[in-house]
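thread: overnight batch results

M.L. [08:02]
morning all. the overnight job finished for the chain we discussed friday. pasting input first so we're all looking at the same thing
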Amino acid sequence: MIETTAKAGNREKDYELLIKQLAALTEGETDKIAILSNASALLNQFLTEVNWVGFYLWKEDELVLGPFQGLPACIRIPYGKGVCGTAVKTSKTQRIADVHQFPGHIACDSASNSEIVVPVFVNDEIYGVLDIDSPNINRFDEVDEVYLEKFVRTLEKYL
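M.L. [08:03]
and the structure it wrote out:
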């Protein structure tokens, strides 16, 4: 079983602590770029076996690269294209065990083999997506999905 956190303790409790850290970091802050920057840095520090953590923001009917941790990435992603565009189109989290099996996958980093993308909403409108890539096949499981969605729901309160 893949250990999600550096501490390798109880994953659910570790995720709950992460969410509390996010709230503490963002409380009282109004600058959205600063909030998203700290959120991506926090996730990058918390998660193991990932090679990219960041946000794409919905602007003028496409996703545009936002704050992230990792190698340079694709700047624009069209609606419905790739895993990120599909998450926007479906308004649902996309947990992809092997991105090479995903029709229309956009390969920004050839080292990425699995991906999870969580849509971000503000006032019930798409705001963007949280995108996390891993060099490992099948890196993300149901626990990751549930708690990354909770992380995003907390983040949305500050955007």
